[in-house]
Amino acid sequence: MTSYDATQVPSNSPAVDITSLLRSWCSPRCIDKITMAHVRLDMIAVDSIVQPRLDRIKELESEIARLRAEVDVVSPSLDKYHSFHAPIRCRPPEVLLSIFSHLGPGPLPLKDDVPWVLKRVCPSWRDLVMHTSRLWSTIRAEWGRRWNLFLDLESTLTLLACPLRYSNRVPLDITLLTSPRMIPSFDRIANQLRQHSNRWCSRSRF
Questions:
Q1: Which residue(s) pair with 140 in the sheet?
Q2: Is residue 11 part of a domain?
Q3: Residue 112 is part of which domain span?
Q4: pLDDT, tens only, 140-191
């Protein structure tokens, strides 16, 4: 970072002490014309120092914005190179899957838990997770009192289709935690699950 150097700022020697005028509480209308003329000239002199620097700041801000936009375009490629050199890539996929298998899935309709979050880490993890059926074989859906009957139902149906598809033909372990107010909507979820009833190894509903 460049330090501030006061010697680089052009000097200004005002003809009128503006600080004293401010402290005197004098109105411009009460000051003689000659003094006011000097005040205007002093103001113009200071403005001639400030304004070019403000213009330069705008130019620099525009340049910074352009450079940031360029960085945003190029950074994803650089991130891939960093990911390629990450120490965890020295571990074989079998080790990663062994670790992933100890992570329990989060409840639907949330999608910020295992295995959803794992496939957002990088392309290689995404491919590994999406092609490992057993990571999707445990389905847990939970609805609380704040459950939105329409929005959360549609979100759940969409998310539910993913583990049902990615789990392929492996047995399913299903747990459903329901509340009385969403029972009328439960049929749509149940119908989606019944299409895979031949794969149910356990099913619980509370």
A1: 175
A2: no
A3: 89-201
A4: 877 655 455 555 677 778 888 888 888 888 888 888 776 655 555 677 777 8
| 10, part of any domain | no
The answer to whether 171 touches 201, Cβ cutoff 8 Å, is yes
Judge whether 63 lies within some domain: yes
Same domain membership, residue 186 and residue 133: yes
How far from 32 is each of 26, 28, 35, CA to CA, in Å? 11, 8, 6
- Global pTM value: 0.53
Does residue 99 lie in a domain region?
Answer: yes
Please tell me the total count of domains within the chain: 2
Residues in the chain: 206
- The rounded distance, in Å, linking the Cα atoms of 69 and 81 is 20
Q: Which helix (DSSP H) or strand (DSSP E) does residue 161 occupy?
A: helix 151-166
